[in-house]
């Protein structure tokens, strides 16, 4: 019986190790009065959790998933299990529609109706959370895209924040003459879309929207024209090297680049390199490329917090989501993250953002969803690839656009 | 003698070349974010900045909290894998189990499939059987993922041991288990150590399985916590603090390699058995 | 004699074999079965997969970038065999038996010890446009500082192979060192007495005796290079415009970026079939020769 004894010993060994390790098994969170919150964002939810604990006695038990793609696959899979989260971050646009189509997220229509009545949130934001007449999820933040500029550099060359495209180009020429690169840009996922978005929406917002709905082809002459503007700017030396991996904020700190287009969440990142709002950097609305356009489009992105329909923590998740829209929560969030609160009753934490909030309240601005959420996934992926190719080897835009259109044709044929 | 000096020179020069990127990491981790610049990567940092960054890592990030559990994963799982792998090698080579190549290949196939595509079914299965977000579940999956490599190395190592060793033990009437634990395992000390340290390092540095199969602070190892410091859309830690954290979590594995080197120092003559 | 005594241990052998086989089949093979199923379906990760037959396989080969991806993957296989494997052997051989040799191996092992985040930072420091490598070349007045290491194909694939060699040489050196240690001393001494030194000693004595280690290093190198993913994803994401994509990246892109799980599964299986074929061809030959039983039988 040599075999059985040896096998038994081996089994004991393995089980022993397992039992030993079992001692430190973590308990589940669901019963401890904490809301399980999973996110692909790196924001400081722990200190925010302290606010909610004070206010509504719910604390967040946050797990951050660094890798956005793995995070999304994980969330999708979790709906089939009893681990579906009480609260999780997601993306609006096609990604939200996908979940709604399968009845996976809890509707928040009642919460929204009340919040809009209270004036806690704008109608235009509600549209982003509406699928087939019902609302789902609530916003953690709504970030408007602005142009960050280096006040030190602008001062040095006697420049002021431009209000028209021509002024912006004139500023850029001065910067180029003085050896400063005007604009930051980067290839790859996610940021390759930024300048296409600015130029396309700034030329014709309907054109931009048409591309995301399949009504306009990427090979249409208007789109080629947009790409040629981009090419022209690139040839004039307006852009940083897309092959550099030095972060935009570091390049601005070193005064190598003067302007960076990003959402209002970027303020906290600028702080990490020691640049101060108001003294070192300011923001201005990105002007219309085409002055004939009646309104000035402003890209927005919004981070939704959603609750899974079948989550064991659905109730507490929805309660938290409701609180997140309140002016108390929004003020606390804005103070902590330094960005722009979407609740008009909450106040932005910096003068710079208070000013831009007032500016954007003017009806001459029109808000649109940024490319990353607006474009369907396969078209987005293809466009990021082709835009990166275009930025790396600038030239005739036609082959790049044809590459995207090929994927788009396939996509719209199937949907 | 000349050849010996030449060996020192070649190895030394290559070694310095190999350490240059490490210098870059250290130099830039020793800068405050306000001092760090993309065009002066080679410029040395300063000690106060390094200390300040280390302080930041310990005071503002979650990274240190994951070290304990990671240490447990990285010691228990490779240990199990080494034993399982050695068992397979022993069965195939020494005991000559029937269709040994086939069974070995079945195990080897475990390395063939890309892990990225496996995590989704693994998560589904783990949440079904209640292993999701548990210490046992993580230890188990790490041990199994490490097993094919372990089996491969141990199989080939055992293949190099003369058959007379086994035959002599059989004549002495030793059981298979005894031959395994008293003769074969001690003889393969350096191979066992190699498997252990390489797999411990792999487990320590794993991000993907940790990301998908754990959730609570008690089970989450250090790599997802480290990766979560990097931000794409605001938040996150200052760049050089992330860099410092990335270096701090690499210290244990670097030390592991250094202190196990003496195992490989002296040759092991199999003739002595 | 040896055969008979071994057969008596067949049952015991199963006791040693079974735990490993069971664990590997359960954890590492079952997900493959599921992936095979997915590859015949249209599935976005939600709801239920729809059976579509061979559609995904047809679509996979219609994607013009897949050909680039296959070529790049093969470049990785060849490159990895030449650089990290070759250099690993050189380091192991030079350091072996040298007083203090163990310490000389350490610099090659440190990169493997680094966390993924640190490795990603190193490579972007070194290889980005105007990065550390370009800065150093410029400082030394050497040509090449203008090269776009990560942006132009096929240079970017070569640059990344070197970068992965930086990480992988130490491990290979360690595995070769174990192999060198297990070489019996007597035949070597005898050969030395016969006047075999340097290259001849290596070529005719050491290299054949290293076979068990070489098989491990080459075998793993083939498998791992076919699966190349991490470095490419963190350095170029397979770009610009998919020129540096490998099959591992193609699979990831389809599955995770586009949520086309079926298509991703098809690429994964294609990759798996290639890897299996390469492994069987290589290992059958190598392991059969290394197998003492077969050796005895042949003799």
List the helices and strands of chain A in order.
HEHEHEHHHEEEHHEHHHHEHEEHHHEHHH
SS-based class of chain A: alpha/beta
Order of helices and strands of chain C: HHEEHHHHHHHHHHHHH
Q: Counting H and I runs of at least 4 residues, what is the number of helices of chain A?
A: 19
Q: How many separate helices of chain C? A: 15
Plain-language structure description:
The complex is a heterotrimer of chains A (415), B (273) and C (299). By secondary structure, chain A is an alpha/beta fold. Chain A has 2 domains: 30-143 and 301-354, D-Maltodextrin-Binding Protein, domain 2; 144-299 and 370-414, Periplasmic binding protein-like II (D-Maltodextrin-Binding Protein, domain 2), CATH 3.40.190. Chain A is 49% helix and 15% strand. Chain B has 273 residues and is an all-alpha fold. Chain B has a single domain (64-267), classed as MetI-like fold. Mean pLDDT of chain B is 91; it is low at 267-273. In chain B, 59% of the residues are buried. Chain B is globular and about 70 Å long. With 299 residues, chain C is an all-alpha fold. Helices cover 76% and strands 1% of the residues of chain C. Chain C has helices at 2-7, 10-38, 55-62, 64-95, 101-113, 116-127, 132-139, 155-181, 185-193, 198-209, 211-226, 230-235, 247-257, 261-290, 292-298; strands at residues 41-42, 50-51. A two-stranded antiparallel ribbon of chain C has the order 1-2. The interface between B and C is large, with 111 and 111 residues.
């Amino acid at each position: 019986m040599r075999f059985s004894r040896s096998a038994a010993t081996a089994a004991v060994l393995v089980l022993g190790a397992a039992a030993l390790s079992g001692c430190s098994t973590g308990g589940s969170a669901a019963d401890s009065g904490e809301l399980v919150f999973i996110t692909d964002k790196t924001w400081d939810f722990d200190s925010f959790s302290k606010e909610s604990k004070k206010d509504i006695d719910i604390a967040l038990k946050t797990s951050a998933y660094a890798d956005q793609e793995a995070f999304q696959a994980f969330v999708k899979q979790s709906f089939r299990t009893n681990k579906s989260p009480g609260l999780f971050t997601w993306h609006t646009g096609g990604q939200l529609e996908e979940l709604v189509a399968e009845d996976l997220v809890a509707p928040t229509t009642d919460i929204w109706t009340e919040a809009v009545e209270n004036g806690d949130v704008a109608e235009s934001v509600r549209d982003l959370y509406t699928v087939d007449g019902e609302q789902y999820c609530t916003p953690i933040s709504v970030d408007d895209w602005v142009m960050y500029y280096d006040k030190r550099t602008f001062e040095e060359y006697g420049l002021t924040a431009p209000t028209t495209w021509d002024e912006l180009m004139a500023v850029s020429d001065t910067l180029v003459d003085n050896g400063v690169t005007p604009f930051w840009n980067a290839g790859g996922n996610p940021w390759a879309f930024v300048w296409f978005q600015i130029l396309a929406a700034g030329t014709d917002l309907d054109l931009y929207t048409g591309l995301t709905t399949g009504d306009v082809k990427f090979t249409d002459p208007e789109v080629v024209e947009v790409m040629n503007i981009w090419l022209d700017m690139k040839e004039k030396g307006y852009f940083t090297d897309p092959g550099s991996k030095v972060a935009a904020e570091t390049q601005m700190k070193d005064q190598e680049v003067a302007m960076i287009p990003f959402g209002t969440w970027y303020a906290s990142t600028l702080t990490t390199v020691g640049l101060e709002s108001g003294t070192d950097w300011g923001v201005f609305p990105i002007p219309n490329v085409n002055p004939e356009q009646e309104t000035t489009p402003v890209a927005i992105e919004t981070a939704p917090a959603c609750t899974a329909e079948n989550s064991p923590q659905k109730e507490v998740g929805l309660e938290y989501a409701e609180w997140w829209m309140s002016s108390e929560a929004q003020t606390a969030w804005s103070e902590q993250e330094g960005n722009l609160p979407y609740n008009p009753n909450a106040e932005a934490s910096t003068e710079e953002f208070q000013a831009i909030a007032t500016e954007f309240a003017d009806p001459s601005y029109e808000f649109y969803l940024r490319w990353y959420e607006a474009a369907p996934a396969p078209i987005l992926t293809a466009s990021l690839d082709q835009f990166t190719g275009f930025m790396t080897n600038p030239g005739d835009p036609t082959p790049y656009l044809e590459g995207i259109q090929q994927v788009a044709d396939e996509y719209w044929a199937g949907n | 003698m000349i050849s010996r000096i030449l060996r020192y020179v070649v190895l030394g020069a290559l070694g310095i070349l190999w350490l240059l990127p490490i210098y870059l990491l250290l130099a830039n981790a020793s800068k405050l974010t306000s001092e760090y610049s993309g065009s002066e990567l080679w410029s040395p940092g300063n000690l106060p900045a390094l200390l300040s960054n280390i302080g930041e890592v310990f005071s503002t990030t979650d990274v240190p909290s994951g070290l304990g559990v990671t240490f447990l994963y990285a010691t228990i799982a490779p240990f199990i894998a080494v034993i399982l792998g050695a068992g397979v090698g022993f069965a195939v080579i020494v005991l000559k189990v029937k269709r040994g190549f086939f069974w070995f290949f079945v195990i080897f196939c475990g390395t063939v499939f890309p892990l990225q595509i496996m995590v989704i079914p693994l998560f589904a299965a783990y949440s079904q059987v209640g292993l999701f977000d548990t210490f046992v579940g993580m230890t188990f999956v790490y041990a199994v993922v490490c097993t094919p490599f372990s089996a491969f190395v141990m199989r080939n190592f055992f293949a190099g041991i003369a058959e007379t060793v086994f035959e002599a033990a059989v004549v002495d009437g030793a059981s298979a288990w005894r031959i395994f634990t008293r003769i074969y395992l001690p003889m393969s000390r350096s191979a066992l150590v190699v498997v252990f340290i390489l797999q411990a390092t792999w487990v320590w540095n794993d991000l993907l399985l940790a990301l998908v199969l754990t959730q609570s602070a008690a089970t989450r190892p250090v790599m997802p916590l480290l990766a979560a410091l990097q931000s794409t859309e605001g938040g996150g830690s200052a760049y050089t603090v992330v860099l410092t954290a990335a270096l701090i979590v690499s210290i244990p594995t670097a030390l592991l390699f250094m202190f196990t080197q003496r195992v490989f120092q002296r040759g092991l003559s199999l003739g002595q058995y | 004699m040896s055969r008979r005594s071994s057969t008596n241990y067949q049952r015991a052998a199963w006791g040693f074999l079974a735990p490993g086989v069971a664990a590997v089949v359960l954890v590492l093979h079952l997900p493959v079965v599921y992936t095979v199923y997915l590859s015949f379906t249209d599935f976005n990760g939600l709801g239920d997969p729809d059976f579509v037959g061979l559609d995904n396989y047809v679509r996979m080969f219609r994607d013009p970038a897949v050909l680039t991806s296959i070529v790049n993957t093969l470049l990785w296989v060849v490159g990895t065999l030449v650089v990290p494997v070759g250099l690993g052997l050189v380091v192991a051989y030079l350091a072996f038996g040298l007083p203090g040799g163990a310490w000389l191996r350490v610099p090659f092992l440190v990169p493997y010890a680094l966390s993924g985040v640190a490795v990603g930072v190193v490579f972007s420091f070194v290889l980005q446009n105007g990065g550390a490598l370009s800065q150093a070349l410029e400082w030394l007045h050497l040509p090449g500082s203008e090269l776009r290491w990560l942006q132009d194909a096929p240079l970017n694939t070569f640059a990344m192979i070197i970068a992965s060699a930086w990480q992988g040489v130490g491990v290979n050196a360690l595995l070769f060192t174990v192999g060198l240690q297990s070489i019996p001393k007597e035949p070597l001494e005898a050969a030395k007495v016969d006047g075999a030194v340097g290259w001849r000693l290596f070529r005719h004595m050491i290299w054949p005796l290293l076979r068990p280690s070489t098989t491990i290093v080459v075998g793993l190198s083939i498998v791992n290079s076919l699966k190349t993913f991490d470095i490419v994803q963190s350095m170029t994401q397979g770009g610009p415009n998919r020129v540096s994509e490998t099959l591992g990246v193609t699979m990831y892109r389809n599955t995770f970026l586009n949520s086309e799980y079926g298509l991703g599964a098809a690429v994964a299986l294609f990759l798996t079939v290639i890897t299996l074929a390469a492994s069987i061809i290589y290992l059958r030959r190598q392991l059969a020769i290394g197998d003492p039983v077969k050796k005895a039988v042949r003799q």
